[in-house]
Amino acid sequence: MLRNDMKKKLQAGDRIYGTMLQEMINPTAAQIFKRAGFDFFMIDCEHGPYDQGSVRNILRVGRLEEISSLVRVRNLDYSLIAGYLDSGAMGLMLPRVEKVSDLETLVSFMKYPPQGVRGLSSDAPHSDYESMDLAKFVDVQNEDTVAIAQIERKVAIENLEEILSVNGIDVAIVGPEDLSLSYGVAGQTSHPKVMEAIQKVIDVSIELGIAPGIHMGNLEKLNGWKQKGMQVIMYNSDLGFLLEGAEKGLATLRTG
């Protein structure tokens, strides 16, 4: 059974790099991100066009390519969370986190007893269809599955220490644009209030032994936050890469 290399790197304190799958449904995306050198990719099931079947196919190719394959869930729906994990997701991110109970529920749904309430189906993609001792299987799944809190609301920043103290949370990823919206400065991700909030996520996460992360498409800003201590770096998305590449190439042709 494939182990989650992302979890090993997080525990070692290594910096890891990933991206978002936002529009592309073809499982080839997993292979492309692997060839590009990313440590992980995340399927956007909050805003993207993905159903359970398309997610399952993409995750399967991700596992075959041995790239850590994650999902951003829509909400705290047990059937979705358990379904993504059974389909082979190595981690899940919950958006719009606001309170302790959000993350307590997420961890409970993601983990098998005694850590949580996840129902057992060992003959599924998340086992790579390999037979093994059931107790060992449960231990590996509970150990390897990455639980991620997306911090993108002012109320989450105000209660950050309490929220990130929930046992079982591995990563706190900032959503800068939503955060700016929550602070009343929509799109101003370099506004002092937003910058202060993001720095707080870094400081509190490190203090609590959680990996801080951020998702941005702007390389200059992303590198800046990397230098300030971000460990999980999410760069752009499939849609962003397509638009930027097309715009750059066309501009060169028109001016050449």
N-to-C order of helices and strands: HEHEHEHEHHEHHEHHEHEH
Q: How many domains, as an integer? A: 1
Task: Determine the N-to-C terminus distance.
Answer: 52 Å
CATH H-tier superfamily:
Phosphoenolpyruvate-binding domains
Name the CATH class. Answer: Alpha Beta
Low-pLDDT residue spans:
none
Radius of gyration, taken over Cα atoms and rounded to an integer in Å:
18 Å
Number of helices: 12
CATH 2nd-level architecture: Alpha-Beta Barrel
Structural class: alpha/beta
Mean pLDDT: 96
**Biggest sheet, open or closed, and with what strands and sense?**
8 strands, parallel, barrel
How much of the polypeptide forms β-strand, as a percent range? 15-25%
> Strands of the biggest beta sheet: in what spatial order?
1-2-3-4-5-6-7-8
Q: So what's the overall shape? A: globular
CATH topology: TIM Barrel
Helix content percent band: 40-55%
How many strand elements? 8
Structure report:
It is a single chain. With 256 residues, the protein is of the alpha/beta class. The chain is built from twelve helices and eight strands. The chain has helices spanning 5-12, 28-36, 52-64, 78-86, 100-110, 134-144, 154-158, 160-164, 176-182, 192-208, 219-227, 238-255; strands at 16-21, 40-44, 68-72, 91-94, 146-151, 171-174, 211-216, 232-237. It has an eight-stranded parallel barrel with strand order 1-2-3-4-5-6-7-8, surrounded by eight helices. The chain is globular.
